[in-house]
């Protein structure tokens, strides 16, 4: 067997498990210090506990299992893996998201699974938009988890307290006190909407979630139990590329221009 295979596998595993910038930071530490100092220096350089654990496990495995591979070689391998990760990040990955009858023809992500991936991926910014909000369960919990990670959260709803054809409905109440308390909640005021020939206003009918300008979930599904269980719903989960950032920036402009206002 190729003696470098174990360390190459370990490098690939670390690159998949850590953000690109953390992999680059670990590579920089490894290339800049004596072997006896590497473990301590890596621990100091990676503040996030989970990331630090992965990095130290990599260092321990390398030093114990592949001591013949030099720090310079490991650093080059890590930087190469990080570079490839950045290149992959520029190319969008698009997956189908689906709720409904199961068929074997094409692979897909379940609607709830796809939106939870976006919510749990957020590290700095999160935008959640939905027309109807009834029973969001796991989604509500994911938004609260994001808030605890100090993610900046924006939630856009049709109206705080009314959905056309449904009478009075407490949308903010459906979000839950924790979500409403940790988010900036916006709506599209009735008086600022386009209207048809007989004066009926348009609706905020968008359903999407965007995280860090990198992950985008776009779907027909509202934040309802039916949308996640028995409806037929179709959407897309987009990772990387320009589209998530474009959607995020578009909603930023809607807020800055006063089209969307605080609820």
UniProtKB/TrEMBL annotation:
A matching Pfam family: PLDc_2
Residue ranges of every copy of the Phospholipase D-like domain listed in the record: 115-254
InterPro entries hit by this protein: DrmC-like, PLD-like_dom
GO BP annotations, alphabetical order: phosphorus metabolic process
Name under which the protein is recorded: Phospholipase D-like domain-containing protein
């Amino acid at each position: 067997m190729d003696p470098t295979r174990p360390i190459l596998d370990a490098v690939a595993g670390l690159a998949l498990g850590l953000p690109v910038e953390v992999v680059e930071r670990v590579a920089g530490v490894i290339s800049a210090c004596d072997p006896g100092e590497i473990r301590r220096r890596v621990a100091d350089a990676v503040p996030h506990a989970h990331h630090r654990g992965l990095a130290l496990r990599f260092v321990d495995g390398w030093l114990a299992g592949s001591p013949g591979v030099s720090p310079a070689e490991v650093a080059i391998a890590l930087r190469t893996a990080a570079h490839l990760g950045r290149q992959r990040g520029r190319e969008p990955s698009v997956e189908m998201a689906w709720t409904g009858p199961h068929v074997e023809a094409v692979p897909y992500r379940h609607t709830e699974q796809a939106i939870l991936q976006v919510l749990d991926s957020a590290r700095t910014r999160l935008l959640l938009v939905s027309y109807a909000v009834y029973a969001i369960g796991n989604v509500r919990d994911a938004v609260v988890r994001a808030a605890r990670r100090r993610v900046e959260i924006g939630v856009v709803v049709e109206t705080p307290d009314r959905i056309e054809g449904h009478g009075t409905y407490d949308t903010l109440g459906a979000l839950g006190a924790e979500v409403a308390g940790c988010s900036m909640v916006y709506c599209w005021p009735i008086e600022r909407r386009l209207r048809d020939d007989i004066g009926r206003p348009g609706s905020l009918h968008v359903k999407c979630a965007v995280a860090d300008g990198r992950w985008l979930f776009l779907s027909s599904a509202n934040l309802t139990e039916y949308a996640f269980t028995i409806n037929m719903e179709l959407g897309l989960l987009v990772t990387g590329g320009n589209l998530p950032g474009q959607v995020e920036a578009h909603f930023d402009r809607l807020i800055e221009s006063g089209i969307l206002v605080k609820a």
